[in-house]
Design brief:
CATH topology: Globin-like
Number of strands: 0
Shape: globular
Distance between the termini: 29 Å
Helix content: 55-70%
Strand content: under 5%
CATH class: Mainly Alpha
Order of helices and strands: HHHHHHHH
Structural class: mainly alpha
Largest sheet: none
Number of helices: 8
Oligomer: single chain
Number of domains: 1
CATH architecture: Orthogonal Bundle
Length: about 180
């Protein structure tokens, strides 16, 4: 890994991460093979994620109007965006053009304040990915007849989602890697 910020060569950064987590061709094939199974649950999955956000005050604040009621229009847009991300992720592409879209979402979460919520703290981004990974594991276990194939698919999706999580979190950790020189006041 380089000392430069990963966004300067996002393709290389993600390829290095893919090598590190051992995301191989068999994993990519498993994600693509199970994409139809996952995507038939897209609407329920995105609804469940945002219902969970609304049920927890630290995350609900990002989706409330000033009067404290849920902002239905914002929720619909966010669900639509999550669904689009899920569909694109199901293609298992590690192409930089696709990944810069994920980076853009991470930068928006980390730098753009919205309403009473402010900027999204990184723990909510990590939590959202955990919710998504758990939901995918349940979907695959329920839908695939072979437990071994369900586990392999779940593992492959997990590797891919963790790559995306790393890209999402890049905006939170700037500047990239501090110099090795000791800090002097």
């Amino acid at each position: 890994m380089s000392d430069q910020h990963p966004a300067t060569d996002l393709g290389r950064f993600v390829r290095d991460l893919a090598d590190f987590v051992q995301l191989g061709e068999a994993d990519v094939a498993a994600v693509r093979r199970t994409a139809p199974v996952v995507l038939k649950h897209e609407e329920a999955l995105t609804a469940a994620v945002y219902e969970h956000f609304l049920s927890w005050p630290p995350s609900a604040r990002f989706f409330l109007r000033p009067d404290g009621t849920p902002d239905a229009e914002r929720l619909a847009r966010r669900r639509h965006s999550l669904g689009r991300w899920l569909r694109e992720t199901a293609e298992a592409s590690l192409e930089p053009g696709r990944l810069y879209g994920v980076l853009g979402a991470g930068l928006a979460h980390s730098h753009r304040s919205h309403g009473p919520g402010g900027t999204v703290p990184p723990e909510l981004v990590v939590g959202a990915m955990s919710l998504t990974q758990s939901a995918l594991a349940r979907i695959l276990a329920d839908e695939l007849d072979d437990a071994r194939l369900a586990l392999e698919a779940s593992t492959a999706w997990n590797k891919l989602l963790l790559l995306h999580l790393n890209v999402l979190l890049l905006g939170y950790f700037m500047p990239w890697r501090e110099s090795a020189a000791p800090h002097r006041p």
